[in-house]
Amino acid sequence: MPRRTIHLALCTLAFAAAAATSGFAARRAPVPAHSGARADQSDGGDVARGAGDLTTAVTTAAHGVAGAPPEVGAGEVRRVLDAGSSGTYMDELLRGRDSSLARWPDRYSRPLAVWVQPAAPVDGWRPEFVLRAREAFEEWQRVSVPVRFTFVDDSARADVHLSWVDRFDEPISGKTLWARDERWWIVSADIVLALHHRDGTPLDESAMRAMALHEVGHLMGLDHTRDARNIMAPRVRVRELSAADRATVRLLYSVPPGRVR
Fold it and tell me: How far apart are CA 195 and CA 208, in angstroms?
């Protein structure tokens, strides 16, 4: 079986009215026994309290975890990225990943199955949180990349699992763990969201939706950007996707994954 690599993204919601950093606690999804996976971890993120289409000429039409067409060379990928980089934070993404990109294969005609934990035996649990989490997936789906989502009731059938915890011991509010194969195609993912900041302060629906938007961005293959105007900033101070968030994920999905030289 092909080897799979596990990537872990830690994220926190930072609220402008608070001096302290808020936090999500960690859960590591089990690695399949046959995967031979190892773990990669990115920095944590934060949500603040209170508070144009790109070319797809190089996009693969892959299904499952098929790789990129052999005729697509690294030079052509580099040209597409350079031509489309304006208005994105693709340069930060490449620096943070040692010039490598990870993304899902084309899953438009065969949507990713998403299971959202329907209830949690945790103080502060609210059924509205399920709706806010689903809205985050739907918002990213509207960006017009070749990935769609469908929600399922059976976790065993899901490609993506989203679950809840009371809080994290770390100064974070969410974690995303995804597995990729050797060609950098993402093959499965798990998201965990906290109901409380590390100090016990509960997250409201607005904060939960913002955190879910941030985590689904990681699920799509994005990492952090220093620009606080974007949902993918380490401390999430906005409540909606920015133009740069949309442009970056479109650019990511206009090229095959792997090392960019």
Answer: 8
74 burial class (0-12, 13-18, 19+ CB within 10 angstroms)? middle
Gap between the Cα atoms of 240 and 248, Å rounded: 15
Residue 67 scores a pLDDT above 70: no
- What is the rounded end-to-end Cα distance, in angstroms, of the chain? 28
The residues, any chain, with a CB within 8 Å of residue 184's CB and separated by 6 or more, are 100, 101, 102, 103, 257, 258, 259
Which residue, chain included where needed, has tokens 């005609």?
Answer: 109
Sorted by where each begins, the domain ranges of the chain are 4-259
Alpha carbon distance 102, 68 (integer Å): 12
CATH number of 4-259: 3.40.390.10
Nearest by Cα to 135 from 105, 114, 107 = 114
pLDDT tens column, 202-228: 999 999 999 999 999 999 999 999 999
* Cα-trace Rg, the chain: 17
How far apart are the C-alpha atoms of 234 and 133, rounded to whole Å?
19
DSSP 20: S
Write down the pLDDT at residue 75: 83
Residue 130 neighbours by CB distance under 10 Å:
19
* DSSP conformation letters of 95-109: HHTTSEE-B---EEE
Neighbours of 164 (CB within 10 A): 22
Residue 122: CB partners within 8 Å, gap ≥ 6? 164, 165, 166, 195
What is the distance between the alpha carbons of residues 39 and 94, in angstroms, rounded to a whole number?
Answer: 19
